[in-house]
Structures are given as structure tokens and as C-alpha cells.
Amino acid sequence: MAEILGLGVTHYPPLSGTDDNLTRVFRGALADPRLPAELRDPASWPERARREWADDEGVAAGKAHRAALLEGFRRTRAALDEFRPDVVLIWGDDQYENFREDLVPPYAVLAYEDKVVHPWRHADESSNMKGKPNVWGEGEDTARTIRGHRPFARHLVEGLMNCGVDVPYAYEPLHHPGFAHAFLNTVLYLDYDRQGFDYPVVAFPLNCYGRKVISYQGNISPLGVERELDPPSPSPSRIMDVGAAVARICADSPYRVALVASSSWSHSFLVDSTFRLFPDSAADERMYDALVTGDHSVWEHTTLEDAEKAGQQELLNWWALVGAMRELGVAPSWTTFAASNIFVSNKVFAIYDGAAR
């Protein structure tokens, strides 16, 4: 039987920028004219937000948050290097990037060959970093090759179809010239120290933004803006089933596979109960506790409506990983929770090693 490594990371776009970009989303929310006046006063904020904002408006906290994220990425990269996968499958979201009005699948397998990408030339489509300096000082001419693994992708699609998961696939991109930012940023951050990333990648996009993927283009919107919503995302329990099916197929394959969930957790700009200023940290802490203790019932019985209310749309990527690891009977060997109120979201890292069948 094949060996499988499970990893959970984030693709938080501001991490690719300089430190002065880390509070950009929070400052934008503070400037929203419909924000209640009392929420402009730090005295009304949660304790963590006040502590992070401090007297330097988040500068010191931003450096500490970046350091925590880099520790998570370096640890997960070390686990990846030790495992030496034949292929890295990444579950990530597509925020009106490759999939738009003409096609919005619930999920898909991108069976690309090797692809040359330009992270900063296509920054509007991938990371909302167009015109902003990046932490590596790389220019628009910067190119890198992300290797593909079409034989594995074909094997996966056939296996999913045979077990009742009717999954679309693609050999070439539709609207995005490279990879949506969930996938590209995952590679960029796992290679934050620029040592190279030669592992083949198969992207497995999920329609995490569902009702807001076309109507709001999966992006930030001002308070008070109401639009006709789109059909919903797949349910968390369905995505867990898909993750489990992927795990079974990988376990019975000849490949060493790293299964990676890439997303931050609750996003402030999706949480109406906090006027889109703060993430729903209580909801995140509940899910994290269930992750650590192996209480899969909490994950399985959280509804899509619960996730949407908590701004946890992107957590569907982790639902796939949790479903896969439950199927394999593997618990996380290491996790960490990088909490934040003013840097858009809480972030979680996890390693599931020894996931062999």
C-alpha cells in the first residue's frame, strides 16, 4: 500500500507582501462608512485585537504573526522533504480566478503538465498583489516552473468516477493563466526561503465561495452591499466524503502522495456578526479543538450554513483533509493555531505523518 502524508497550511495573500501590507484589509474595514461608530474605537474591540493594534497600529504584532506563519511553513516543508512525495495534491479555493460565469464546478482535478507561471505578472488574478511590493523583491519578469503529474491526476479522476464522485477535470486552464492564488501561494510559501520546489503538483480546487463566488467574485465587499446570491457550495459532509475517496484511491495507488489543505480559517470580511472587522474566533477554536482531539463528529455535523455564518467558507479545504485522514485512521502528529483578530484570519498548520495503508 502507498504512503500518504497529510498537511494543513494557509495561503494568506498578505504574507507575500511587506509588513506594511498586513493590516490593509483591517484598515479598509475600519474605513467603511457603514461601520458602527463605536467599532472605530479600539476600546470596544476584543482583547486580542486591542493587544495586536497596540500603540503602533499593528506593526509589532504583524512581525510576530509573520514569524509564527513562517515557523509553520518551515515545519511543514521539513515534513514534506522528509516524506519525499511523488506528487503533492493541494485542496484550495478558486475565488473567481480560473472558474467564472461560464463554468463553476463543485470541485475539479487540474491535470496540468509542467507549467511556467509568473506570480507577479498575474498578481491581480492570483493574490491581489498587483502593484504592491513582495517580500522577496521579485519583479513581474520572475518565472518559475510548477511541475505537474498527469498520470496521477488521470488515475485519481478514474478512481473517483468509479466510486461515484463525478469529478470534472482539465488539462489546461480556463481563465487564469497559471494557478489560482490558493495553489500558487501554497507553493511560494512552502518555498519561502527560495530553496526550490521540485515536487509535482496536482491542484484540486473546491468551490468554497459558493453563494458569493460569482455575485461577489469571492472577494471583499463593503457593508450594506446586497446582491443576488449564487447556488451554494458542496456541504462540508460531502467534501469529507470526497476527501475520504481521494485517500482510498491514493492508498491503493503506486504513488507516495502528500495531501495538502490550504486555507486560513474564518475570514473577517465574511463575518457579518462582527461587521466584517474580525474573524469568528470562537467558531475557529471550536473546530480546532475538534481537530486536535479527533472529534470528527463536530466536523461532519457542521452545516454549510454554520460555516458561512462563521466566515469559514475556505475551511472546506480542510474538511477534505479531515475526511481523508479520518478514512486512513490517522491523527495529527503536530498542530499549531496562529490566532489573530486584525490580520484577516486565524491560521492553522497541521502535520499527519504515518498516514499509510
TrEMBL record:
| Xref: Pfam families | LigB
**Residue ranges of domain Extradiol ring-cleavage dioxygenase class III enzyme subunit B in the record:** 232-328
Q: Which GO terms describe its molecular function?
A: ferrous iron binding; oxidoreductase activity, acting on single donors with incorporation of molecular oxygen, incorporation of two atoms of oxygen
Q: Which keywords fit this entry according to its UniProt record?
A: Dioxygenase, Oxidoreductase
Query: Out of the domains of life, which is the source?
Result: Bacteria
> Which InterPro entries does the entry mention?
Xdiol_dOase_suB
Q: What is this protein called?
A: Extradiol ring-cleavage dioxygenase class III protein subunit B
- Organism lineage string: Bacteria, Bacillati, Actinomycetota, Actinomycetes, Pseudonocardiales
